[in-house]
Amino acid sequence: MHRLDIFIEIKMVISSDVGSTVSFWMIDTGQKIKQFTGCHGNAEISTMALDANETRLLTGSTDGTIKVWDLNGYCHHTLNVGQEGAVDISHILVLKKAILVTGWDRAITVFRPQNFNQFFVQPEEWKGGIQHRDDILCAAFLPPQTLVTGYLNLPFDDQWRKFFFFSLT
To answer: Nearest-CA neighbor of 49 among 63, 37, 60, 41?
Structure first.
């Protein structure tokens, strides 16, 4: 098992492994109830998230894509994060009107669900520019409009953790 997320509302634990398999487990009994294999081909799943309605699972991968699945295993969309090649995706942040993606390219990638009218979806432009000097490892959103992202400042010095605050207006 590589990644584990607990979703209390749907009473499931969802796990993924380096073999690109997603498994669903009942939170009460620990019983595996379904499994999707080969979700990203040979690429490793690096992160997962559920949409706000908890009806779609988003899986991010080392191949630079995010796939949007229903809970029956049907892939509705492939989001192309790594336009210049593979990008190891570290975090998917699902907001009301946008999906923000961070990873190993120092940038924040933006997708707008209202534009998901085709299977392959290209990102929109992030207007915040590149603020980080290294890989973005974490992100959090504080409503109504504050985004915080963080990275490791290598080599280690007095300021080895860096955080940036953005206003999403």
So the answer is: 60
CATH code of the domain containing 99: 2.130.10.10
Asked if residue 92 belongs to a domain, the reply is: yes
Backbone angles phi, psi at 99, to 5 degrees: -120, 120
Q: Report d(CA 62, CA 97) in Å as an integer.
A: 25
Strand duo 75-80 + 120-121: pairing = parallel
Give the position of tokens 């998230």: 49
Residue at 84 is within a domain: yes
Global pTM value: 0.83
* pLDDT per position as a tens digit, 100-130: 888 776 778 889 988 899 999 988 876 566 6
Rounded to whole angstroms, the Cα distance separating 61 from 19 reads 11
3-state secondary structure of 52: coil
Residue pLDDT, tens place only, 54-91: 889 999 998 889 999 999 999 999 999 876 666 788 88
